């Protein structure tokens, strides 16, 4: 483990402990997402959880950085860096998800099962939200003129399965 990873894990100790306790409550996914969101609100890290190079992002698309994976695979903490104009495809998730913006603004569009647009949110630094399937179809877009960074916590080991996305939609 490199020094950056050691520094990151140390900075995330309280958050990871809180998420571990929320998962150990063994409640349904919506309740787990609410519990995890409470811990993320209390322990939302600063952008310095990433190196200066990681905070730059990539012109090729948004970039994910794995910050922590629980050894039993029950959750992962990921940082996502979005340059202006970068956008996800419309998608849903395999499990519950919680995210908090630590820099910039992320625009989120919410869809129903028929892919009708049912809501829009601008999530600013400090905003935290969570959700669980079904009803988690969305798209995220950096509509601002500066780089945005968010922390995402997923109820699975994303390094093992490759992504938290269940399906993409056209």
TrEMBL record:
Entry-linked InterPro entries: CDO_1, RmlC-like_jellyroll, RmlC_Cupin_sf
Keywords of this entry: Dioxygenase, Iron, Metal-binding, Oxidoreductase, Thioether bond
CDD domains given in the database record: cupin_CDO
Record flagged with keyword Oxidoreductase: yes
Binding residues annotated for Fe cation, in chain numbering: 91, 93, 138
Record-listed cross-link 3'-(S-cysteinyl)-tyrosine (Cys-Tyr), residues: 97-154
MF terms in GO: ferrous iron binding; oxidoreductase activity, acting on single donors with incorporation of molecular oxygen, incorporation of two atoms of oxygen
Family per record: Belongs to the cysteine dioxygenase family.
Protein name: Cysteine dioxygenase
